[in-house]
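Hello forum,

I keep getting stuck at the same step: I have a sequence, I want structure tokens, and every attempt I make locally crashes halfway through. Rather than fight my setup again tonight, could one of you with a working pipeline run this one for me? It's a single chain of 188 residues.
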Amino acid sequence: MQMLKTIYLTVSKVRDFAIIGTIAFIIGLVVVQIFLRYIVAGAFRPFAWGDELIRNLSAWMFFLGASLAAREGSHISLDFLMKKLFTGKSRWVADKVIGFICLIVVGIVIVVGFESAFSNPASMINLPSIPMTVFYLAIPVGMSFVFVDFLLVFIFGYHPFSKKALATETEKSASEKLTNKKLTKEEE
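Reply #2:
Ran it on my machine without issues. Output:
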């Protein structure tokens, strides 16, 4: 479990930095585009490819962000209805059925996303000559993260690496250390 935690948290850090980098780049490019379009309108023109790049990079931000929401359990759910309709063992069964259906749907989106991304490799955006495949890969890559997060919830019943679970684990560890210190002092 410790190795899984290390791998997951390392990949999660890369994902976090990718989201932060994408957002920073988008904001920077938007500011430059606005500056070139409205402030120095006569001397310079905005980049012809800027708006297209911003729009396509947004897909990466959306799908990687969806995976963060999956990790934290922040997607829309019907908890109120589930609590009213199911209790005890029936709630556990309902959660497993819903989780399995979600895994199937996300798996289909991943497969179709990869097929779509590689269906037209010659398609490029305007000037920087970036293949559209790079942007279309946002769907299957982001949904792969979602699949892993849903799979962890399906297996454990909760996400073991969510901020809430990690905070609980840290509190429990700190409490155990404090108890061990007290026992050591009493033994002396």
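Residues 2-39 form the longest helix (38 residues). If your local run keeps crashing, start a new thread with the error log.
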